[in-house]
Amino acid sequence: MTTALQKVVYTAEATADFGRDGGVTISDSPLTFALTKPPGMGGKAGAEGANPEQLFAAGYAACFHGALLFHARAKKIATDGSRVTARVDIGPVTGGGLGLGVELIVQLPGVDEADAAVLVETAHGACPYSRATRGNIDVRLTVET
To answer: Cβ atoms within 10 A of the Cβ of 68, count?
Structure first.
């Protein structure tokens, strides 16, 4: 099931050249990334550059944390020192090709475990990255209080 946008509020644009051995330029930002393959995919250890999985992890972590903070404010739950780490795995899937898996590690120091569980589930329901991946890839949620 697709979710149609009612209104576009922002469009991000990135252009990649030469796939995993090239670079990425972001249209409305000074950010330009050199890309390199991770060693497990034939790249050199220690090579400078990012890879698509790292960029996806950065976006997912930031987006999920934003959704979590929004809902924490609405519920008047303090989230000082909170952070979200996204680990994006890539590997072969049944039937051929490669697939992704994600683990979101949500750190909520000082937050009651029950409140933390509600916040993480609410954020997972609201985060656009979670919505986009739901039913497509395995997303594991780990909560640390």
So the answer is: 26
Q: Which domains does the chain have, with CATH numbers?
A: 1-50 (2.20.25.10), 52-144 (3.30.300.20)
**Residue 103: is its pLDDT beyond 70?**
yes
pLDDT band at 47 (very low <50, low <70, confident <90, very high): confident
Best CA proximity match to 101, nearest among 88, 110, 112: 88
